[in-house]
Amino acid sequence: MKKTRITLFALGLMVAGTATANAQNVVSAKAGLVHLVEGEVYLNDQELHPKITEFPDMKDNSVLRTAVGRAEVLLAPGIVLRMGENSSFKMLSNKLIDTRVEVLTGEAMIEVTELDKDSTLNVVLKGTSTQPRKPGIYRFDGDGTVRVYEGQAALASSTGQNVTLKSGRMLVAGEGGLKAEQFDAGLGDPLYRWSKRRSSYMAMANVSAASSIGYAPSSRRWIYNPYFSMWTYLPYRDLIYSPFGWTYFTPGTVYMAYWPGYGQGSSYSRGGGGGGAVSARTPTFDRGLGYSTYSGRGMGGGYSGYSGGYSGGVSSGGGVSAPSAGASGGARGGDSGGGRGSSGAGGGGRQ
């Protein structure tokens, strides 16, 4: 799977000067924060109707279930679980250093932006335990299928069989053991498209959150951004890219979002003196999204722009545009092929 590495800076341009008053350093100390609820979602058979500033917390052995709805759950920092309709999973352990979940029914997709070397994530499905070993996108279906869109995972069955899955490989856990085969990682579906859009919103919220802190964090963390009424991810050392291609800034690198031309001749110019300038490239059709994107690097190694985007677009001094993710902050919206109603934050245009 090819990454579309995109720097999201348009949000910073829109809220510059007010960001410091909007983002607060509130940190999630446990895995299992129910970040988003769309439609009918139940926690231990109690239907959830969270308010904008309320985020239910999953305890050990609690079960989250969707009917005609979807849900997004924050696990350890940098790891998000998203559920499609008619799906359920059990929180086996909500410890940040030892997070364990069991997919019971339906479909779940886990986005791993960063992995802590001192922490582990295990996903149990039909008696098989999957441990992501690299950042990536992992999908689990109730029939026992595990797919690695990007990344690498170690699987261990209850019978003692061990398999390593890499990008573009899938595995079906059945009575005959674990059988790995290839699949088309470029072919998306409603859960994949919704997950990618949600990932972009979270990265947008990172810009104002990172700019408001003013000091280097001591560790990776989830941080609450009240401007968007949502949580976002804050890396520890340097800016990083999510598996979907969005950028997460640290307080020390967020200036790139506000002044894309800054750092000419420095390592941050991505080209040793190009100043972050961007040139358009031939669009490539993304089957997972259903529309074309512009990828690659422009003159001087600057970041490439995405089709559409905010009205800020690419400035004359270089930089890049944000993805076409609809209006920022507070808007609500569904997704083609499965979204019915919503109560989540983070923009709502269709992609």
Short overview:
Helix content is 11%, strand content 33%. The protein is mostly beta strands and 351 residues long. A hairpin with a 2-residue loop joins strand 8 (120-125) and strand 9 (128-132).
Fraction of helical residues: 10-25%
Number of extended strands: 21
Backbone shape: globular
Q: Report mean pLDDT, rounded to a whole number.
A: 73
Spans of at least 5 consecutive residues whose pLDDT stays below 50 are 1-23, 262-283, 291-351
CATH topology of the domain at 26-182: Jelly Rolls
Descriptors:
disordered N terminus; 351 residues; Jelly Rolls; mainly beta; two-stranded antiparallel ribbon; 15-stranded mixed beta sheet
Describe the structure.
The chain has a domain at 26-182: Jelly Rolls, CATH 2.60.120.1440. Helices cover 11% and strands 33% of the residues. It is built from 4 helices and 21 strands. The protein has helices spanning 10-15, 19-22, 190-213, 255-258; strands at residues 33-43, 46-47, 63-74, 79-83, 88-94, 98-105, 107-112, 120-125, 128-132, 136-141, 145-150, 152-156, 162-166, 169-174, 177-182, 221-225, 230-234, 240-241, 247-248, 284-286, 291-293. The strands form 4 sheets. It has a 15-stranded mixed sheet that branches. The longest helix is centred in the middle third of the chain and has 24 residues, at 190-213. The two termini are 19 Å apart.
